[in-house]
Structure formats: structure tokens, C-alpha cells
């Protein structure tokens, strides 16, 4: 489809308030081009948020949606952002993202709101792909991508995603023995449902957590390991070969005044004591990946842990890096991790997100594209994972439609790619420090 300059200029930008998977307000942005093509995108929201993340602008009026409405962010889209970008060529994603950053004028996008800026940034990407008559994964990066991601899927959820029912936020599996993306999903299906039956049988099932994993009832954090290992073996898979464990500790959530407070175990631990707990788990169980094992300010233990385990375990920085290329560079220099969790709304534009992914890959580290606990029906990150050949995708569990839409979108992308689709599974892991 040949497009002249006039046909790809932005005609209008709009936004409305919609709702995420927790029923909280969020923002959907719309970009209309002069040739009639449109693009839209919905912004997700996190519950376990790092102190270095871009600012999500909410109204704070307790009489409207308990202060969570986003009408100010919407007005910023319809006002200042619209005025700045109308008439711009939709091909100029990087230029427009930078214009919005400069228009905001703060370090964390707090004036206009990272949710306002990101919504428009994502919608611009969608409008371009629609104008070109191509799928989003083909237009997000030059030449697109072909690598299908290895899924990292939650089986049981805790922390801020389950009202602190357990201290650890995510107990996940990675099907390293799978030979295809579809086989990963099949193996996860079997483990997930076996775990559900097991929890129900033992009277340990409270419901479903924010990201779709089971909401368990336990007396200690270690109990989850036993249930998860029993679920994997009960589903017919070999521990450490077919299936390995992945943890998101989200340690900043229970770190205060230099101590880690494990409410479930009724323990308050020093950094050194908590290090022994985490390192003990990594030695005892088949853990291939661990995210935020320590608070983002506890860099001494990050460095110590990476030195001991960085050549055999994927150590992911989430709150530590917040998809910020400057923080990733500092982490590389200080040898704090070997992987970066990638979340669009942590940094606030598509351009900055892709730059962070590329920098991570240049370091020889692994980028892990991730959803948020407050998710939407928008499968943008599925396309982002393939477009950048990131190799891994983490969207929560194997239930709830806002999660399944991301897994299903990869199947559609695979169908479109046909013989060009690649899947390298466990080989994606790199332990460069």
C-alpha cells in the first residue's frame, strides 16, 4: 500500500476512560490519520510498583472512583498532547515520543502523566501498522521479528497481587523442555490444572489472584514449593528438565528500614539473613529464573547474589531497573543482575521501551517482556516481544481473558509467520554478567 505524505499525518487524537482487569479506571487513546486510518491502545497499571517508575496520573478525587479516575490524564491527551502532535507524520514515532517527553518537562512524566503519554505513543504505533496494512509486530521495529517467546507463566500468586496471602509475589514455571510455543502452553495447562485440583483437595485454595494464578492459603512460604513440585511431577513432567521454576520475590514490597519482613513466617530478617533464605531456595529447588530477589535499594545483596548465581540463574531486575536505560547501564557496570524486566508503563513511551530492550540485548542480557497486574484486553506486548526478538514473555497465569489474549496473540502471530517463525526455548537463556 503506497501512502503519500499527506495520508500519514495525524488528524486527531482522543482518549476515554475505560477499565483494567481489577476494575480500576485506565486510559484508552485513539489516533486518527488524515486518510481515515485509526489506531488505539489501552494502558495497563501495576500494583507492585517501583519507586523509580514513571508516574501514573490519577485524579485523587475520593468521590470519583475512590480517587482512581484518570480524567486529568485524558484532558492532557485531548489538550496539550493533541495540539503538539496533530499534523505530524505517523512514521516519526521517535520524534513524537520525544516531543511528548519535552512537553511534560519532568523526570518521571508526572505533569502530563505517563499513562497519557504512553497511551498516545502506543496508539501511534497501532495507527502506523494499520496504515501500512501490516501486523504490529512487523512495524514496531525495522524488519519486524520472527522469534516466538518462551512463556513464563504464574501458577500461584501472592504478595500485592493476593492481599499478602503469601509474601512471595509469583510462583511460576518455565517449560524448558518444550520444543515449540504450543507445547509450552500444553505443558503449562497440565501443570496449572493439576495444581488447582491439588490445592482444592488439600483445602488450600482461596480463589484466583490478580494475575490469574491460584490464591493459596498456606502457613509458610516454603509450602508453596512442595505443592508446585508435586503439581509438576503429578502432571507427568521431570523437575529441572521438562519444567523449571521461576520466582518473582518482589522483595521491595516487604522491605523496610533495612529489614525484610516475612509476615507469613512471622520473621523479620536482616539483609544477610534474607540472602541466606533466597540463596538456600536456589540451591534446593530447580530455579532457572528469579526476579527482584532483593529490594531495589539493597544493591549490596544484588551484587553479591549475581556474583554467586549469575552464571547459572536468570536474575531479573524489575523495580531495580524500571525499564530505564540509564539504570540498566548502571546495573551492568555494577554487575547487579543479568536480565531486565520490560514494562511499557514503567518508562512511558514505546521508543524508550524498545531502546531499553536493545541495550539489554547488546549487553548479552535477557529482556523479559512483561504485563502488569492491572491488565487489559490489549495484546500490544505480544507484538513487542516478537518484534524485538526478546525471547521471553511474562503475562501472568493461564486463566483470565486479559492474560489469555496475550498467549493467544502469539499463536496468531505464529500462524502469520508460518515457516519464518522461530522458537529456541531454553537456549534463549544467557547468563552474561
From TrEMBL:
Keywords: Cytoplasm, Glycolysis, Lyase, Magnesium, Metal-binding, Secreted. InterPro entries: Enolase, Enolase-like_C_sf, Enolase-like_N, Enolase_C, Enolase_CS, Enolase_N. Binds a second Mg(2+) ion via substrate during catalysis. It is found in: Cytoplasm; Secreted; Cell surface. It catalyses: (2R)-2-phosphoglycerate = phosphoenolpyruvate + H2O. Mg(2+) binds at residues 248, 291, 318. HAMAP family: Enolase (MF_00318). Belongs to the enolase family. SMART domains: Enolase_C, Enolase_N. It is an enzyme of class 4 (lyase). (2R)-2-phosphoglycerate binds at residues 169, 343, 372-373, 394. Residues 10-140 form the Enolase N-terminal domain. Its EC number is 4.2.1.11. Residues 145-431 form the Enolase C-terminal TIM barrel domain. Its main location: cytoplasm. Its cofactor is Mg(2+). Coiled coil: none annotated. Catalyzes the reversible conversion of 2-phosphoglycerate (2-PG) into phosphoenolpyruvate (PEP). It is essential for the degradation of carbohydrates via glycolysis. It comes from the Bacteria. The active site is at residues 211, 343. Pathway: Carbohydrate degradation; glycolysis; pyruvate from D-glyceraldehyde 3-phosphate: step 4/5. This is Enolase. It holds the Pfam family Enolase_N. GO terms for molecular function: phosphopyruvate hydratase activity. It comes from Rhodohalobacter sulfatireducens.
Amino acid at each position: 500500500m503506497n501512502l503519500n505524505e499527506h495520508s500519514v499525518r495525524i488528524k486527531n487524537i482522543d482518549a476515554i476512560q475505560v477499565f483494567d482487569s481489577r476494575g480500576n479506571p485506565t486510559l484508552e487513546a485513539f489516533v486518527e490519520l488524515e486518510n481515515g486510518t485509526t489506531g488505539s491502545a489501552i494502558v495497563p497499571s501495576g500494583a507492585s510498583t517501583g519507586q523509580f517508575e514513571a508516574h501514573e496520573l490519577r485524579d485523587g478525587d475520593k468521590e470519583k472512583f475512590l480517587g482512581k479516575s484518570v480524567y486529568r490524564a485524558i484532558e492532557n491527551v485531548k489538550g496539550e498532547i493533541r495540539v503538539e502532535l496533530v499534523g505530524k507524520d505517523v512514521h516519526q514515532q521517535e520524534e513524537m515520543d520525544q516531543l511528548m517527553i519535552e512537553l511534560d518537562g519532568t523526570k518521571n512524566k508526572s505533569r502530563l502523566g505517563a499513562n497519557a503519554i504512553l497511551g498516545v505513543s502506543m496508539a501511534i504505533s497501532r495507527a502506523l501498522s494499520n496504515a501500512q496494512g501490516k501486523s504490529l509486530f512487523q512495524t514496531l521495529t525495522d524488519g519486524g521479528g520472527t522469534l516466538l517467546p518462551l512463556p513464563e507463566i504464574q501458577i500461584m500468586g501472592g504478595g500485592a497481587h493476593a492481599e499478602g496471602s503469601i509474601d512471595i509475589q509469583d510462583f511460576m514455571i518455565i517449560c524448558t523442555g518444550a520444543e515449540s510455543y504450543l507445547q509450552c502452553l500444553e505443558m503449562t495447562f497440565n501443570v496449572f490444572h493439576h495444581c488447582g485440583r491439588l490445592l482444592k483437595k488439600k483445602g488450600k485454595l482461596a480463589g484466583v489472584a490478580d494475575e490469574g494464578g491460584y490464591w493459596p492459603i498456606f502457613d509458610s512460604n516454603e509450602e508453596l514449593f512442595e505443592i508446585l513440585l508435586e503439581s509438576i511431577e503429578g502432571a507427568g513432567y521431570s523437575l529441572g528438565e521438562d519444567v523449571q521454576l521461576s520466582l518473582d520475590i518482589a522483595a521491595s514490597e516487604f522491605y523496610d528500614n533495612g529489614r525484610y519482613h516475612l509476615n507469613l513466617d512471622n520473621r523479620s530478617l536482616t539483609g544477610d539473613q534474607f540472602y541466606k533464605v533466597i540463596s538456600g531456595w536456589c540451591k534446593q529447588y530447580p530455579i532457572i529464573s528469579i526476579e527482584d530477589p532483593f529490594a531495589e535499594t539493597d544493591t549490596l545483596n544484588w551484587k553479591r547474589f549475581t556474583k554467586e548465581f549469575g552464571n547459572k540463574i536468570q536474575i531479573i531486575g524489575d523495580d531495580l531497573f524500571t525499564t530505564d536505560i540509564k539504570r540498566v547501564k548502571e546495573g551492568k557496570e555494577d554487575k547487579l543482575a543479568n536480565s531486565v524486566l520490560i514494562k511499557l508503563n514503567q518508562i512511558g513511551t514505546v521508543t524508550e521501551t524498545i531502546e531499553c530492550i536493545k541495550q539489554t540485548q547488546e549487553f548479552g542480557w535477557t529482556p523479559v517482556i512483561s504485563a502488569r497486574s492491572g491488565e487489559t484486553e490489549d495484546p500490544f506486548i505480544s507484538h513487542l516481544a516478537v518484534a524485538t526478538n526478546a525471547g521471553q514473555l511474562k503475562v501472568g497465569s493461564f486463566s483470565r481473558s486479559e492474560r489469555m489474549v496475550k498467549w493467544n496473540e502469539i499463536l496468531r502471530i505464529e500462524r502469520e509467520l508460518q515457516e519464518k517463525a522461530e522458537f529456541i526455548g531454553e537456549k534463549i537463556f544467557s547468563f552474561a554478567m
